[in-house]
Structure formats: structure tokens, C-alpha cells
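Review this chain:
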Amino acid sequence: MRADAKRNYDRIVEVAREVFREQGYDASLDLVAKRAGVGPGTLYRHFPSRDALVDAVMQSWVATVEEAVGRALAVRGDDRALLLTWFEEYVALISVHKGGPAKLTGAMGDERSPIRTKCEVLRSAVDRVLEELRAAGALREDVTALQVARLVGGVATVADQGGLEPAEVRPMLEVLADGLLR
């Protein structure tokens, strides 16, 4: 990629991240192009679809998933504390952009989704936490990572769309945790 094309690409991703954070994933791509100082044609040459742009914006986010699961697994305390820490981390991860919880949760388990790679990163992170709990004999046998991702994602979606504060979200996460643990 030429240096000027790379600068345009990086600038579009940076601006899209800001616009998506402000207005959600359905924000105008023309607005993204305008704020990035490029024409719509330049934006669409780099990102032929909205999902391609969303995928690029989320790329740096993937590294934060690994950090978050590491923090959750480092929690010292009972199994419930580990699970609740992970749930709060998970909600924060998928709530970075307005509309993010619904987009990610809706795509979870959909093999045709353009953001399926990101969903798989999340599902894998959930699985790491669940494996830790399984090894301790703390988790119900019938619980899957996909189910947990969808349940916590549903809570995050309600919080995102309802503008709920973390203190209002925590009790819902506690109900989930209590239902998953033995």
C-alpha cells in the first residue's frame, strides 16, 4: 500500500472509531469520510462495506479482549467473583461503541457474519473463563460459551439501549452468575 493510501486508511479507521463511539455503528459513512478528510470513493475503495469498516475498527479491540480475560482469570476469590469480574469485563468490551452490544451479540454464532472472527475471539475468551470454572467443578454441566456470550450480551444490549449505569447492570449479571454456577 502506498504511503498516502496507508495514511488515508489509518485516518478513516481512527475517525470511524470516534464516530461509532458517538453515534453507533449505523452512523453515516459519508460523515466518516468527511471528518477523515477523504471523499466517499476513497472510503469505499478501502472499505467496500460498512461491515468491512466495522471489522477494521474492531481490530485493535481484539488485543483488549486478551487483556480482559487475563484480568478476570487473575481474580483471587470465589468462583462467583471470577464469573462476575468476567461478566463486567465482557460488558465493557462489547459496549465500547454505541450499538456494539446488539451488533456483536446478534452476530454471535453466525458463521456468515462479516464480524464472525471478532465474535469467535469473544467466544473463545468466554470459553477460557468457563473452562477454569469447570475445572473447579463450579459450573453447571450444560453451559456453553455461546449461551453465556448471548446472555451477557443481552444484558449489555439492554444497558446500552437503556443508558443504564454499571450499578444497575450488576444485579442482572449476578442473576446470570447464580444461574450458571452450581
